[in-house]
Amino acid sequence: MSTGQLGERQVAVRFTGTRRQLFGILIRGYVLMIPTIGVYRFWLTTAKRRFFWSNTEIDGDPLDYTGSALQLLIGFMLAVAIFLPLYGLFFYLQTQNQTVAVLGILAVFVGLWFLSGYALYRGRDFRLSRTLWRGIRFDQDGNAWGYALWRFLWSVLMVLTLGLVYPGMAAGLWRYRYNHTWFGNRQFSMTGNWRKLAGPYYLAYFLTLISALITLGYVIGAQGYTNTDGWFMPDATSVLLGAVTLLIFWVTSSIFRARETTRMLSTLRIGACEVTVNVTARSFMLQSAVFGIVTSLALGLLIVIGVVILYAVGGEAPGSDGSLPNFATIFSGGLISATLLVIGYLLVFGTFTLLWEIILGFGFWRLIARGTVLTNPDSLKTVQARAEDHSLAGEGLADALNVGAY
Amino acid sequence: MQLTGRYYDGHLASPLDVICQVEPAAAGPMLAVYGLISRELVEQWPAGGVYPVPGRKGEMRIGMSAELPGARLLVTDAAEIERATAMLPALGEHSRADSRRQLVIAASSSLALVAVILTYLVGVPILAERVVWLVPPQWEENLGETVAMQMEDQFREQGTFVVCDPNPQSVANRALARFGQEVLADTNSPFNLSITVVKSEIANAFALPGGRTYIFSALMDTVKSPDEFAGVVAHEIGHVVYRHGFEQIIATAGTGALVGFILGDMTGLSVAAGLGSALIDTRFSRQHERQADEFSAAAALRLGFSPHALGDLLDRIAADDDMTKALALLSTHPLTEERRLALEAQPRTDTPGPGPFSAAEWRAITAMCDSVPLRDATTGT
């Protein structure tokens, strides 16, 4: 605990959870999802949120997540009610002539993209209105349809300008979300604008673009590939250029993410309480590198184990000429092969999700929490509770569209 | 017995360190909250109304009343937590009741889902079979056209889609069309049949929704008699007449919805949704193959060719084809053995008819693809 420039008290946010605890919650959840045919996922989401919320401690008092699994379940049912007619529409469109079908399906996707903005906003509302700190509820007002429309129009502009307007879009949406966020009867305010994002964004955009163009130019212009029997093999220089492009993208996009989070959230205030967030590009790079390496190793191991099991079940050794053995005996048994496929898929999918949650999900939350400092937190002691918000039935669409982290 | 903790009153964001004890009152025991320093009474809550709130490790969060969810007491010390549990039996009761409630909700929604799945597995084949006849044939033709275009594009990319003998007025094409019409006679099928022979290394034939039927040239190399060939073509026409392709599409749409429902991915974009649908859908097709075989056999009897020839052909194609066996899981065809036995059970025509094709027609059909070079997919030219 320290004091700011004007002698105001400063306090850092603490995070007390461990990866081991989250691992336990996730494994238990994945196992229980099997007998419940996936229904348990609503309980898992709830448990996960309780873990993140309750371990986040602001000025000595932890957050509380008060949402329940039943609310998510009901929200999902509502979303299903919206999606079933869409399914019917989709099916009908497929039976129409080509032009109508293509245009119609395109229109449905555009509609879904629009709806995803609504779902994101509502999902955030759901989480905030079920978050307590010091016994006082957070909330979000504003118009979810308005947000969806605004985001939609911006994204049209994004397409037209090949992504150049992103800083304007992102800053505008950040501000809309946070300026409609409340802690009890006190409103948040965010002042960050596109200038905060422009530098790191255009750096990432143009460096990656230039590098990609150089690579493409070399491959096409200088014939940086060999063509054997229709297989295009890039030469060493092309591979090197491609790797450099990826490296540039990785570094500059990490810098952008870190700056975006740091600069936007540091313009946030809750009345007289100022928020300062500091996250480094290095930590983002470290996270994604660890995730990439661990995931490749784990999935590689799974594939090796899978092949070994197939050999064992198939009862045949690989041919000495390196040819694949005859798996026909395994795959012709419908039920066994179906079971193997399902188990294999669940293992691969489960491993990937688990690592994503443990490394990236946990890492990001803790990074933001530990990088946050509040100046003058005592001003929050006068915040009063507002009336209950009963209108929100689960995250609805958000759960169905699977948007919004945590 | 006293309890120290941190108290939030649910009205003001101003936490207070407190000391609590249970005191008897007229309406039952009350949990009285006193300021730790001031020792003044802050609030009284019915002790029976308190409930545990899930929190982090080494900490107990107590909700004071369901009416005011923000009113909380935080107890952090292990000894204090033990004391709280002893002092407030309502915590344990609420906790057990909540566990039971969660279990009931989870179990009943899982059971409901099982019921949905079972209803689906039983209901959709039946339903799809009925629904298909309510859909205007025009829809099916449109869909078939779309599928045909996509498929032709796909084959063309691999350099393997070449129509043998594109002239509709050639002897072979006229013979195929005439045979198709004869098979189709008396079926009231609303579709216009089109039979196209395509150059390909794969021995196969299939019918798309709406009547487009494709025969791959490798199949023509495998057939040993006009009867075998006629049997395959009639089998494919059977699929068209029964509208099997469209029925399959309806069923697939239903499966997609169900799998998406289970996975929570209603957009059906995940691999799991696709794989799950594919696994479930193979189930529908066996019945279809059997029906098409029966249709083919009936056509054989009517037009005077051997219904057994199709079985012989199936035997030959599937006998030594490991690839087919390897893909049997996702394949749409029932076991060859089973189908051959069913076909052999059909009565044999006692008086040999004129056969499906005249000698000249048969010569023309078998020669259709002779002048078309088989393109090698690997050169990609």
Give a short overview:
The complex is a heterodimer of chains A (406) and B (381). Chain A is an alpha+beta fold. Chain A has helices at 19-33, 41-54, 69-94, 98-129, 144-160, 166-179, 195-221, 236-265, 281-314, 328-331, 334-370, 397-401, and strands at 2-3, 9-12, 14-15, 56-58, 61-65, 131-133, 136-140, 181-183, 186-190, 225-228, 231-234, 268-270, 273-277, 372-375.
Describe this structure in words.
The complex is a heterodimer of chains A (406) and B (381). By secondary structure, chain A is α+β, with helices and mostly antiparallel strands. Helix content of chain A is 63%, strand content 13%. Chain A is built from twelve helices and 14 strands. In chain A, the strands form two sheets. A twelve-stranded antiparallel beta sheet of chain A has the order 1-2-14-13-12-9-8-7-6-5-4-3. A two-stranded antiparallel ribbon of chain A has the order 10-11. In chain A, strand 6 and strand 7 (136-140) form a beta hairpin. Chain B has two domains: 3-95, PH-domain like, CATH 2.30.29; 135-367, no CATH class. Chain B has a seven-stranded antiparallel beta sheet. A four-stranded mixed beta sheet of chain B has the order 8-9-11-10, with helices on both faces. In chain B, a hairpin with a 4-residue loop joins strand 10 and strand 11 (212-216). The N and C termini of chain B lie far apart (89 Å). Mean pLDDT of chain B is 81; it is low at 323-331 and 376-381. At the A-B interface, helix 2, strand 5, helix 3, helix 4 and helix 11 of A face strand 1, strand 7, helix 2, helix 3 and helix 7 of B.
Q: What's the structural blueprint in terms of helices and strands?
A:
The complex is a heterodimer of chains A (406) and B (381).
Chain A lengths: L1 E2 L5 E4 L1 E2 L3 H15 L7 H14 L1 E3 L2 E5 L3 H26 L3 H32 L1 E3 L2 E5 L3 H17 L5 H14 L1 E3 L2 E5 L4 H27 L3 E4 L2 E4 L1 H30 L2 E3 L2 E5 L3 H34 L13 H4 L2 H37 L1 E4 L21 H5 L5
Antiparallel strand pairs in A: 1-2, 2-14, 3-4, 4-5, 5-6, 6-7, 7-8, 8-9, 9-12, 10-11, 12-13, 13-14
Chain B lengths: L2 E7 L6 E8 L6 E6 L5 E6 L4 E3 L6 E4 L7 E5 L2 H10 L1 H43 L5 H21 L4 E2 L7 H14 L9 E6 L5 E3 L4 E5 H6 L3 H17 L1 H20 L7 H33 L5 H11 L2 H5 L9 H9 L14 H9 L14
Parallel strand pairs in B: 9-11
Antiparallel strand pairs in B: 1-2, 1-7, 2-3, 3-4, 5-6, 6-7, 8-9, 10-11
